[in-house]
Amino acid sequence: MWGVPLDEKRRLATSRRIVMAGSSGPGAGVAAALAADGARVAVLDPGGDGRIGAGPESGGLHRVAADFTSAAAVASGVRAAVEVLGGIDQFVYAWYPEALTEPSTFTEVSEAEWARVCEGPLDAAWWLVRALIGPLRSSGGGSMVFVVPTVGLTGSSGFVMLSVVAEGLRVLAKGCGRCWGEDGVTVNTLATSPSLWVAPDHGARLLREISLSVPAMGRVGDPGDDLAPMIELLGTSEAHFLTSGTLVTDGGLWMGL
Amino acid sequence: MSASPAADAATTAVPAPRLVEGKTIIVTGAGGGVGAGIALSCAAHGANVVIAARRKETGDEVAAEITRRGQYALSVRCDVTVAADVQAAVDAAVERFGGLDCLIHNAVAPVGEPHKVEDVPDATWEAMMSTAVRASYYCAQAAFAQLRERAGTFIILTSAAGVEGSPYIPAYGVVKAAQRGLAKSLAREWGPLGIRVNCIAPVAMTPAMAVSAQNSPVFLEGRLMDRTPLRRIGEPEPDIGPVAVFLASDLARYVAGQTIVVDGGGFTAF
Fold first, then answer.
1. CB distance from B255 to chain A under 8 Å?
2. B93: helix, coil or strand?
């Protein structure tokens, strides 16, 4: 952490964060970095076997296998995670089904795949925020952060479903921020390089689609080193007046806002 | 010499160009409101219009009005949440008019009463998802082959709420944003095939808006009007329809992946 006051460092070290993430990928990197910085982190893992329960604690990181196929199941997973942590200060959404991060041609996407891969994460996010607002209010406020690829802003051939989900989540964050600001709950979006989420060869093509330039910082970012600090920042008192915002955190590649 | 400037204008007026002459355009949710306005406007500009409405009797009325004006329309019953209905609408367009140049997906479930996120009824969320997100999938899939054949265009009606979110109708904002994500990516995927995809984000006085106005006159006459530089709520046919006509026409041949906000200037941030 750079330049964070000591009292904030102490608060971060004792903060309770729920991260929706898989066992690998950017979300997992973010969760590990948050835990390494001292937070207690419960990872809601949609790739689990559907059981609700806390896995063994490891370095402040708990894994909670969760079912995201119904509102009731999501609420159960959230309850389990909150119970493990003893409350919640921040929620981070950083998960996309593997099928979303693989290229596909829209006209070859079956209705069943559309429902499961594209609509499923939107349903899950909708149910999640509704289940989380009660515990966040009980904690006296807190923050939500949606980590999305910029393809929702830019569009992308071959990743139509990812674009649909990313833009839906980004505006879900805005709506939640508008609804819950007076509760002391901020809701923001980190828009990140799509190359973090897709295979490297596809990522290179996406970057060419997004911009004529290369990232100003010379790289597209690392979940632990570059994204996690932004998420931590959004959980501090310094960021208490920032809500419903989209922070493009891609090293200065897409500059359309 | 004419008696008045108005009479001068009448005698020298140049007929409006018929921008979509001979094109076949399907409009979903065209039994009333914005959809009906778009359908009437497209027909006035020479299109063969397929009125796709869940309640066929409403679509029949709009088709009858178009026919009464000497233009061409076909009314089909179409619940956009049913894939077979959407496909049938496309098939009907092809059978009656020989092809399809444009599909405009306008239909969406009623937004219902204002709610905070946690209070939105499950049925409202499900209806939003099915009429906006799932139905967009159905429309795009059903129309693709025909649009490709004619280098056509796919237009989705979205909303400024799909850009800036809404504290009153948050579910609506989410699904309208999802549709914008779809349009932007489809524009990139279908552009090389000659198909343009765009969005229109209107604010117009529709029957649903009128009900909202009755329930919440302070919002409509106060907040919404205060934000609108043109100081009026749009009308479906004269204000929204022409923008759809433009996007469906060859004048917009180099416009793809965009959202045109047609709201009297209320929402300006992109």
1. no
2. helix
- Distance from the Cα of B5 to chain A's closest Cα (Å) equals 47
ipTM of predicted complex? 0.93
Tell me which fold the domain A6-247 belongs to.
Answer: Rossmann fold (3.40.50)
Pick among B156, B175, B184 to test the A interface (most A CBs inside 10 A)? B184
Contact of B18 with B219, CB cutoff 8 Å: no
Structure confidence by residue, pLDDT tens digits, B77-120: 999 999 999 999 999 999 999 999 999 999 999 988 888 999 99
Judged by a CB distance cut-off of 8 A, whether residue B187 touches chain A is: yes
DSSP string, B36-96: HHHHHHHHHTT-EEEEEESSHHHHHHHHHHHHHTT-EEEEEE--TTSHHHHHHHHHHHHHH
As for how many domains chain B has, the answer is 1
Is A166 within 8 Å of B181 when comparing Cβ atoms? Answer: yes
Query: Tokens standing for A133?
Result: 């607002």
In a domain, B241, yes or no: yes
The model's pLDDT over A197-226, given as tens digits with 9 standing for 90+, comes to 998 889 989 999 888 989 999 999 999 999
pLDDT of residue A210: 86
The residue segments making up the domain with residue B181 are: 19-206+235-262
A168 closest CB neighbour out of B134, B181, B192:
B181
Per residue in B99-109, pLDDT (tens digit) is 999 999 999 99
